Amino acid sequence: MGLYKDAAFVRRAKWALSVADERMAQIIKKVGSFKPGVVANAFQALIHSIVHQQLSMKAARTISGRVLDLCPRRRLSPKAIIALTDQQLRGAGLSRQKVTYLRSVCDHSLTGQLKPRRLAAMFDEEVIEQLVEIRGVGVWTAEMILMFTLQRPDVWPVDDLGLRNALKKWYRVPMTAKRDRLIRAGEKFRPYRSVACWYLWSSLDTGIVPGLE
User: Fold this and answer.
1) Residue ranges, the chain, pLDDT below 70
2) CATH says 42-138 is which class?
3) pTM, rounded to two decimals
4) Cα dihedral sign, 42-199-167-53
């Protein structure tokens, strides 16, 4: 089922966040249900993340669909990707650099360096250290895996542009603020910073204005 589908966890998180901060309470009230998109398979999540790097959602979806079409029965797997030629992957719309990144993910999966069960047993910091060893995977991508694949409840991705935009809107934290200040801005939301982050992201799409009901 996963933590994010646990109704008791979601109730506790929403209650604690609402008590911790009145603006967050407003956001939760307006956004409503906690419905993050979860990609349970770590390999597929990494491939998805790399394809989407520096692309619009529309372009990324198109390229992802082309890559899937190249895979037998449209099933994304390390063996399926490795079997494709660079020319095929480039023809799907991937840059030469991204092709290298995808092959690095596949290599780590096939050699056993990337194992979902192993990741699930690690602390957050260990997961990040493990994943950034893969070419094309940085700290932000590793944090997204923590949040939306491993469903870790207390991740605060301060390098994320959307989070910075939301902190500026709701808490007047400058976009150019140093990491220490961005980290401090999330302290009140422990141990549910992942949930708080999702609500902050969602608030940017709703047109909610701070202080107005």
Assistant:
1) 1, 207-209, 211-213
2) mainly alpha
3) 0.87
4) positive
